[in-house]
Every structure is written in C-alpha cells, then in structure tokens.
Specification:
The structure is a single chain. The protein is α+β, with helices and mostly antiparallel strands. It folds into 2 domains: 166 residues, no CATH class; 82 residues. It is 34% helix and 27% strand. The strands form 2 sheets. Strands 1, 2, 3, 4, 5, 6 and 10 form a 7-stranded mixed sheet that branches. Strands 8-7-9 form a 3-stranded antiparallel sheet. A hairpin with a 5-residue loop joins strand 7 and strand 8. Helix 4 runs parallel beside helix 6. The longest helix has 27 residues. The radius of gyration is 23 Å and the shape is globular. The relative contact order is 0.13. The model has no long low-confidence stretch (mean pLDDT 90). The site of one zinc ion has 8 residues, from loops.
Length: 257
C-alpha cells in the first residue's frame, strides 16, 4: 500500500539489510534481487531507476533506496539471510512512504551493525572476519585463515570507513531453510522420473550413462542445499538442479522414438 510522497527537510534515520563482501576492496551489497550492484557507502548517493527513464523514486515504480524505520520490521519486508548486516542509513530528498517503510531519492550510510552472535557457534562475537562475505566471530572460532582476516570493531570501522558495531539482529528463519530443502528434494524427484521412464525406452548405453550422471548431479545439488549453513546459496543450487532437470528431459526426448 502506498502512502504519501514527501520532500524531507530533516534527513530520515532508517535501517536496511545488506551484506559486506570482498577482502581487498570491501563493498556493501544489498541483499535480494538487486544484490549485484554494490552501494556507494562512503558518500551520499542519489537513486537511479534501472527500469525506466524517470527520477527515482517514482510513485508507480519500485525504484529508490528502500529502508524501514526499525530493525524489527526487516523480516516483514525481506527474507533475512544469515550473516547479513544492518545498515543505519539517512534518507533525504523525495521520499515515498509505504505501510512498512520508505523509498528515497538519496541515501547516506552512517554505520554497519554486525550480528552480535558468532556466525559459526552463536557465542558472543568480538571480531569481524573479512571474506567473500564478512561475518561476526567469537575468539574461539578464529582458527586457521580466519585468524589472519579477523578485525576488532575499531579496525573494521577504519577499514569500511563507517562506524561498525555489534547488535542483536533478526536471524534467518528455519522455515526458509526447510522450504528450500523440500524444493530441492522435489527437484531431485522430478529428475528421477526421466530416469525411470528411460528404463522403458530402448535407450543406448551412452544415453543411459548420461542420464545417470545428470541425476547424480541433481542429487549432489540437493545434498548441498540440505546441508548448507544458510539459504544464501539455495537459489544458485536451484538453478543448477533446474539445469539437470532440463538435461534429463532432453535425454529422455532423444531416447524416445
Ligand atoms: Zn522507477
Ligand atoms: Zn564462535
């Protein structure tokens, strides 16, 4: 539901989910559909619409910088993924107010809140570990390569250029992991169907071997989905399983007279 569109005189404090990626040049990435484009987090930024040629945010569009008022509202508007951080942002310029949050023309990142719980064991975190995804860690879990990439809160603040704190943040819901796992098992079942049907067709040994290989691949992606620590890679695994299903269907069609 869309509520008023407004010019904001005073900058509006709000929060949003994101993730920090990269060791050499860390960037702040939005999570969700637009996660491929990093946020400029050191300077105030003006939103651009990636769909149409109008100023963002437009009332009839979805463009603009999205944010909500309170951390507790984040699970209502987006899927919380493990190891996400919360950005404290200041919105300004034109702001569209929705039932659950805002879309704004300008955004400045004021700070980054990392989960107060260690990503690996859930104990109280005291360090931030840089990596493909930056994570919170307790002292006990700083083993191996992690130790060399670990930073204090002050070091992480210096490295990112904005204030870093630890905070109790919404966590990934178990339900999403269960649903992702059930979907993966369903995809494996669908990939098994062509294999069973191939048994009735007069397929060559090469086709049969290829089909078995494809189904095994689907089983591997299914296991990876079920065993994943977070739902973050689930979408990529689903695409891989879809590819396996497509390949299995092609093999069945080729073998069926
Ligand atoms: Zn737009
Ligand atoms: Zn730990």
């Amino acid at each position: 539901m869309t509520l008023p569109i407004d010019e904001v005189d005073e900058p509006l404090r709000s929060v949003k989910l994101a993730e920090i990626r990269g060791i050499v040049a860390p960037r702040v990435h939005p999570i969700g559909r637009y996660r491929r484009r990093a946020y400029e987090h050191l300077e105030p930024t003006t939103a651009r619409c990636h769909h149409r040629s109008h100023d963002a945010p437009a009332i009839e569009c979805t463009c603009g910088f999205h944010a909500v008022r309170h951390v507790d509202q984040l699970p209502e508007v987006t899927t919380v993924v493990a190891d996400s951080v919360v950005l404290d942002v200041e919105l300004s310029g034109t702001v569209v107010e929705h039932e659950h949050g805002y879309r704004a023309e300008q955004q400045s990142v004021l700070g980054v809140r990392f989960p107060a719980a260690c990503s690996w064991c859930g104990a109280e975190a005291t360090r931030v570990v840089a990596g493909r995804i930056w994570r919170s860690s307790c002292a006990r879990c700083l083993t191996g390569a992690r130790r060399g990439r670990a930073m204090t809160r002050a070091d992480a603040t210096a490295r990112l250029g904005v204030d870093v704190v630890f905070d109790r943040l919404p966590t990934e819901r178990r339900r999403h992991h269960v649903l992702g796992s059930l979907r993966a098992i369903g995809m494996l079942g669908l990939a098994l169907l062509p294999l069973l049907l191939l048994g009735r067709a007069d397929a060559s040994k090469v086709t049969a071997a290829a089909m078995v290989a494809v189904v095994l691949c689907s089983a591997v992606w299914c296991a990876a989905t079920v065993l994943a620590r977070s739902i973050r890679p689930h979408r990529s695994f689903f695409v891989a399983q879809s590819g396996c299903l497509f390949a299995a269907s092609l093999l069945l069609m080729a073998a069926t007279p």
